[in-house]
Amino acid sequence: MRGVAGRAGRRFVSSLPALFGVLVFTFLLMRVLPGDPAIFFASGPNAGQAEIEDIRRRMGLDKPVPEQLLLYLRDVATGNLGRSMTTGQPVLNDLRNRLPASLELTFCALLIALVLAVPLGILAALRPGSAVDHGVRLICTLGVCVPTFVSGLLLIYVLYYLLGIAPDPTGRIDIFAAQPPEVTGFLLVDAALAGEWEAWWAAASQLVLPACTMALFVLAPLARMTRASMLAVLTSDFIRTGEALGLSRRRVILVYALRNALLPVITIMGIVFSTMLGANVLVEKVFSWPGVASYALDALLSSDYAPVQGFVLLMASIFVLVNLVVDLLYGIADPRVSIG
Amino acid sequence: MRIGRREILAGAAAMAVPGGPALAQSRAETLRQVTGNTVNTLDPTMPGSTREAFGISVNVYDRLVGFGRKQMGAGWVFDPDVIRGELAERVETSADGTTFTFHLKRDAKFHDGTPVTAEDVKWSFDRHVTARSLAAVQIQTGSWTKAEQFRVVDAHTFEAKVERPDRLALPNLCTLYCMIINSKVAKSHATSDDPWAQAWLKDNAAGSGAYRIESFKPGEQVILRRNDDWKGGPLPFFRRIINQTIPEAATRANLIERGDADLSIDLQASDVPSLAQRPRVKVVSTPQFNAFTMVAFNTRMAPFDNVKLRQAVAAALPYQDIFKAALFERGAALFGGDWSETPPTARFPQPMPMKTNLERAKALMAEAGYPNGLDTTFSFNVGSAATSEPMAALVKEALARIGIRVEIQKLPDAQISTLVTEKKLPFLTETSIAWLPSTDYFFRNFFTGEQRWNYSSWNNAEIADLTAKARFERDPAEYEKLCKRMIAVLAEEVPLILLWQPNQDAVMTQAIDGYTYQYHRQVDYRDLRRV
């Protein structure tokens, strides 16, 4: 176990330069973008130069860029990510409030996607070229080529508007339902902890549509990867040996083949997870999900520097963390692998 | 109280359906508004506050006075000519029009139960003119600039003085920036860096308004609860208000059609006609009579510093086609006016005498010294693409006929505001609004000065002179004369071309009644009820 901790520590330290690079790069990128936030936020019929200058001073934009960068790095080091002009709140608070929403949605979507994709991939690999294989391919292609906002709106239209089965697709919990007391920020967890099963049910039913929408989109990479790596494993010697020894087919496939085929699936899962977290902005918009991606997009559109920088930093950190977890999972899936 | 068998039975029946009738009743007394934008602050005077934040503050804070309302067409609109008391029981204006004495309602209380006194009013106005905020720039248009103008007479009497009788002095005090803050609470959260408690008031409210804040999640939702002790007017119908951010317009429309939400004022204009056909939906369309959409020229930069060229463009635009294609005629036209020298009324905006006349446009092009035409760009912001995109296409097509080659430029909102402020765009379209729809106010803000609102960067000595005079003119006939002259100069010089006043389409469920179009273009929940 100490080996694992040491490895994680080393991994974290070695990712620091990359994080620093991301920090500086985003900072400069935001300043290169056209559009002056001070002018954008100075509204009012007579907002003249004085008001604009005042906002510029408040946002710290009156100083030369290198000095701004140093101040920003100092702030980040002390845990201050600045204040968002769009929401009027400190960025750290905003991210802390919104990250659980995004994570909860992404975890659920990934779970749904895995539960569907792995069996589909195995089925397709067992009978390559068969009708089942083609069926799986069709589902995956559809999932990938229908943009999430289209599938999201479609699901809303059919399940909410026409049939009235789904609750209204707005936010994490029915607006008229009572919120469970906040502990972790994950509504499902909080509601379960408080034993408020009505709230749990309200939150879960709100979650189903957006999670399915996202799951559909990432079904393809997971299912295709499972199929490809299963195909490779199924033709290898140890499988033939296993079958020759008369082991049950179920045991051969689910224990020996699947476990060996999982390595690339885990890799792709890490990537899929990180992408989903950042790229689910369309799903968040369509379902009014109060997550971090839509927050960053709104900020970007109004040239609000601090939230965008904070968001990119958060995403970079999560990416580092996810990769670490993926490496640890490798070790579990295949004890021969150890990545330093 | 004697409890009889019948009451017990009724009570048992009510209990048998847990939450049934109670919940249904609270839904009926709850208004759920869905909007695409967010409320980002509880202090509307904060630089960068959104329009939705304005709407919330109107309901949470009181002002001394407010505007009345009147019927216009089938709906209600605010009436800038009627001023009614909110925290003030009555207002006395001195004979020379420079001193206003406000008698406060003696039973008015803040949300924390403490009485509203003249001290609070004085502190609030000191803040509005002193602190760095949006309030100071707005109310200076009514000659309110320094703390010395405000005086406490006694605990319930307050006096405000201007040097010259400004026509907009009192109307400015009706605007939402002039909210009255609970000074005891605010002072307890003030710091030496922040003497006006601006940081604290961003996330907290200390008002006396018809509603108090139940919860505030910036970017998600605001929930208001009725203040049953409110003295500013008749108690509003709704006990609870939910203002929720739903970014997707189609989802907002679905929610209203299914009756899960009650009201939205920012649906897509193209969806409104079909929504109006649905049995459960009601649409209240009001031309925004204090707004206008225009095409502006940069009058300080070649080529549009040339009057003839501006007139040529004005004669070449296919007004009716643009009105149809871009706005589906959902608004009031500001072109095709039937007058030449003097406008029929002193109102502004009003239809200007602009008509499509290609022959005249071509002749003017030659006179302007551009027989071979010219190249230019036409800019608009992404946020207004739904109307501006078809408009730009038609402008491009029409101007090609008189030799002007137009390149269309679609810019993100932050970028276009930067370019407009720096006065770098030659030719653009924008929609703008004035809270106080009086002619001299429009001209002062949109046609003089260096601020962003002077879209055409127009600098005309006569207009500057006329607006300065009109501002303090107390004789209605003389004021009317000045205003008519301003409008005539505008029609002649065409620094910008007025197109229309877009409708505000408030889409609601059938049962909602009393919707009023307000100067701030947000919902005043105090007007609404469920029938």
UniProtKB/TrEMBL annotation, chain A:
UniProt keyword annotation of Transport present: yes
Keywords (A to Z) from UniProt: Cell membrane, Membrane, Transmembrane, Transmembrane helix, Transport
Topology versus the membrane: Multi-pass membrane protein
Chain segments annotated as transmembrane: 12-33, 103-126, 138-163, 199-220, 261-283, 311-333
Protein family: Belongs to the binding-protein-dependent transport system permease family.
PANTHER family recorded: DIPEPTIDE TRANSPORT SYSTEM PERMEASE PROTEIN DPPB-RELATED
Name of this protein: ABC transporter permease
Upper classification of the organism: Bacteria, Pseudomonadati, Pseudomonadota, Alphaproteobacteria, Acetobacterales
